[in-house]
Amino acid sequence: MKFQLRIAFLLTSLILASCKETTQQSNLDLTYPKTTKKPVIENFFGTKVTDNYRWLEDDKSEETKNWVKEENKVTFNYLDKIPYREEIKNRLSELWNYEKIGTPFLEGDYTYFYKNNGLQNQNVLYRKKGDNDAEIFLDPNTFSKDATTSLVSIQFSENGKTAAYAISEGGSDWRKILIIDTASKEIKEDTLVDVKFSGISWYKNEGFYYSSYDKPKGSKLSAKTDQHKLYYHKLGTSQKEDLVIFGEKPSEKHRYVGGNVTEDNRYLIISASISTSGNKLFLKDLEQPNSKLVTIVNHVKSDTYIAENSGSKLYLVTNLNAPNKKVVTVDAKNPTPENWKDFIPETENVLSVNTGAGYFFANYMVDAVSKILQYNFNGQLIREIKLPGVGSASGFGGKATAKELYFSFTNYSTPGASFKFNPKNGTYKTYWQPKIAFNPDYYTNKQVFYTSKDGTKIPMIITHKKGIDLNGKNPTILYGYGGFNVSLTPSFSITNAVWMEQGGVYAVPNLRGGGEYGKKWHNAGTKMQKQNVFDDFIAAAEYLIAENYTSSAYLAIRGGSNGGLLVGATMTQRPDLMQVALPAVGVLDMLRYHTFTAGAGWAYDYGTANDSKEMFDYLKGYSPVHNVKKGVKYPATLITTADHDDRVVPAHSFKFAVELQEKQTGETPVLIRIETNAGHGAGTPVAKTIAQYADIFGFTLFNMGYKTLPNPPKSKIKS
């Protein structure tokens, strides 16, 4: 998401008062579809739980499809009546319409880069040779008539003459891999199918490694997938001949398996996990064709990967006995942890590492903000790289032979730009700066630290137009995630820019369960401590209200996936706290999440209802689907999901919507917007994304009582 300026400052208290209705949306007729109850009763440790809407889990049934159509009909009939919805959509389109260019990468005789002219639904992969003009190499906008087939990834053989690229159809996590001759741009052989959660890693010019599950029985969109396998595809052979390299033993169930060949083609590195946290690590010497796998880490108590090698010397990044991560070295002949030696020791800040041009680049998160240190292969600190500002930097990766590297920089009010970096002297210059009609000088980012329920200090970045009145009447979106060791670092978003143009406040707390302060911070928001995440989010809302940024009447909470769970739990625990709730593709049925697709792999964060009575009681105690109560006035709610989401299946959202619609007291609407031919989010066409955010922002402001948007400024601000 990326963004700009023009609709304007929805804001002084006089303007807000003149735009505000007192009765909210009682003038709109809302009749929800009648949803049939078909009770299914399960017994958990002596407690019977009734699931009235399990039939909605059947994504293939005509009954479910008809239910989706009827719900969408109600939703879009409501959204169509929002008077300024089209105005927001036009502004989003206007701001989105600027050229975007990715950082280049060299493969064979060509330099490749991604580019989007502005409103193209999918980014286009270009290439150029020397000083010649750039040409289109792959245009995903031509892959399907409605641009819902996206280019997910591409990897090139050692000589750059062949490439393998993965595509997603309709947003699904199931991929296809196509193999292309880079000179002629012609497809070389049959397409590989039924590939999921996979990288592509070449061995020389001969073939590549990829990962997938056995094709599930039942619906590919919802059936459980549990046994991940690593395959090797040799060029010129059919997929049915592909060798299983790892994961074939039923006794060794791993839900996530990946393989990567080192840049010198000497080693195959295999990572195997049973959940989204923790991995075993193995090594195979490819110079010895019949060599056996060598175990580096034989347990899943740490996250460990190989960042680089120099001959048989391995450089590993690990949080084993180092919650904030460190880099260690070891010889491949004896690679187990007792032989590791510190290379970049652990510090008080969380570390991530990239390598390129013969250097290590240590990216530290200091209160969710980037700090970059450059090291040589002897572990000597070369320099700290002074970044363009306070925000998030990424990149600095490349081949060992690279002469120059690239990185990008952004924050919540600064559109992302890319820079060309000289690794020898540490200097850099702008490679690409977006020409966008948004002036970051008119906005401010402030990091605050507030106190959660148990006394823990939580950081939060608040972004808004300069000069707003702290009068408790600013429309505010509080966005959170809080899980799976994911860190929310500052980044620019076109959609958020449009929100802030309206005078909106955008606030992002770094909740426990994330990775901003390392493994301990992550673990503090998992399993029986998951309530910490919700308490942190509630405390963030209370802080914004106490400091007069907003009030409950002007507050919306938003989050997606695990963040959708966050919103669902918060709105059912504290329905009085916010005016609007926006759960997106959420994990909302905590008693059954692990029975779909690869959901069982999320148990590290959540636990499962089958683990123990204590874990069942805890999950049931906050599961959004199971905690909607009759007689409660819930906030205006717009649930968003997609019919091809095979990561968090849409049945979660379906059930939550029905429970809320049945039990809601008062006149605030409960709607579900179900995108068709789309998935969990990645690869969604730009047109669909713009339409979705126009609906989200329109719904939010409308239910905060705004009858109109302020007039746009007479002239655009030049950036």
Radius of gyration over all CA atoms, rounded: 26 Å
Query: Could you name the CATH topology of the domain at 13-94 and 438-703?
Result: Rossmann fold
- The stretches of 5 or more residues where confidence is low (pLDDT under 50) are 1-27, 710-719
Structural class: alpha+beta
What is the second-level CATH architecture of the domain at 13-94 and 438-703? 3-Layer(aba) Sandwich
Largest sheet: 8 strands, mixed
The count of β-strands is 40
Classified in CATH, the superfamily of the domain at 13-94 and 438-703 is: Alpha/Beta hydrolase fold, catalytic domain
Report mean pLDDT, rounded to a whole number. 92
By DSSP (H or I, 4+ residues per run), the number of helices equals 11
**What is the helix fraction of residues, given as a range?**
10-25%
In what range is the share of β-strand residues? 25-35%
User: Distance between termini?
Assistant: 19 Å
* The CATH C-level class name of the domain at 13-94 and 438-703: Alpha Beta
Shape: globular
Question: Strand order across the biggest sheet?
Answer: 33-34-36-35-37-38-39-40
Describe the structure.
The protein is 17% helix and 32% strand. Residues 1-27 and 710-719 have low confidence and may be disordered. β27 (369-375) and β28 (381-385) form a beta hairpin. It starts with 12 loop residues before the first helix and ends in a 16-residue tail after the last helix. α3 (85-96) crosses α11 and α6 packs across α7 (562-573). Among the domains are: 13-94 and 438-703, 3-Layer(aba) Sandwich (Rossmann fold), CATH 3.40.50.1820; 347-435. The protein is built from 11 helices and 40 strands. The protein is an alpha+beta fold and 719 residues long. The chain is globular and about 70 Å long. The longest helix has 18 residues, at 62-79. The strands form 9 sheets. An 8-stranded mixed β-sheet has the order 33-34-36-35-37-38-39-40, with helices on both faces.
